[in-house]
Amino acid sequence: xxxxxxxxxxxxxxxxxxxxxxxxxxxxxxxxxxxxxxxxxxxxxxxxxxxxxxxxxxxxxxxxxxxxxxxxxxxxxxxxxxxxxxxxxxxxxxxxxxxxxxxxxxxxxxxxxxxxxxxxxxxxxxxxxxxxxxxxxxxxxxxxxxxxxxxxxxxxxxxxxxxxxxxxxxxxxxxxxxxxxxxxxxxxxxxxxxxxxxxxxxxxxxxxxxxxxxxxxxxxxxxxxxxxxxxxxxxxxxxxxxxxxxxxxxxxxxxxxxxxxxxxxxxxxxxxxxxxxxxxxxxxxxxxxxxxxxxxxxxxxxxxxxxxxxxxxxxxxxxxxxxxxxxxxxxxxxxxxxxxxxxxxxxxxxxxxxxxxxxxxxxxxxxxxxxxxxxxxxxxxxxxxxxxxxxxxxxxxxxxxxx
Length: 403
Fold this sequence. Notes:
single chain; Aspartate Aminotransferase, domain 1; Aspartate Aminotransferase, domain 2; 2 domains; seven-stranded mixed beta sheet; four-stranded mixed beta sheet; globular
């Protein structure tokens, strides 16, 4: 399959969009696990819009919900009540922590809201404001969420970063303990560091953080933007560990393809924000909320989340065969359908290019990890086809280096 970066659409984007992304193929249509270029050639999409279209492209129930709501009310602002916002807030409480939510447009905005919530809570509880985050984490591109991110490569050039963040090491509980001071308000973590290399937290670490936060009287916060909404085989990543945070965020798959993020708080934290303390013009847009409600209904009707572990295990077994075949591959990581293929050398980009030429789209998680995010309702047949394309790409890139 030819490289499409020189087509008319690519040229238009390159001429008029800021150069903040490395783009490859041009996509004009999507159906299920497939996307299509302007010439009608198809790709098997194992990016799902970076974990956004969890039910695949153009799922009929989501499309119908969007169309119906767009014909009724597109936007009214948060100065008024709208049914879809109320229904989604109730649903998020039911599947979340039993408290209230704040609706935003993205994961970064949801995390920004969570940081503000923690600081406002801390200001009322001893003047605490600092948040301990993890090295290797990724929480967004706003200045606050960038400051909370534990990757210097995305922070370079944006100094001075926002103060009030300290860093510990994932799966090293003592490093978290050492980072906590009398000014610490919260500990923030991802149960799987997706952008940081698809690195899962251990059960000992997550339960230890919960116990440590309880001991110190501070908040435990979870970023569920990528590993939530069923991606790991449970609705939320923290549910693998038998703990509950005091607040967590969701986005990406939450809106079924439309921009939507949410901060979900426990009952104890649901009254921290008051009128004027935070806001968002587009947050909780009725169309996005209608799409989200449709996603939750499909999840329930088709037992989407319940099927993820078996699909993930099927795909992992296929990838593990390649790990055993090629000395250049390190391991398979992740949970459910958030899966990383770790390489011994920083050649993820090269491998992704070859996969795309074979008709498969995936993404990086650093230069040494290929990340796979198939739709949660992907079929075993599509997974098998994807594994064949991966095998062909591996043969081309590492063919001379088999064990």
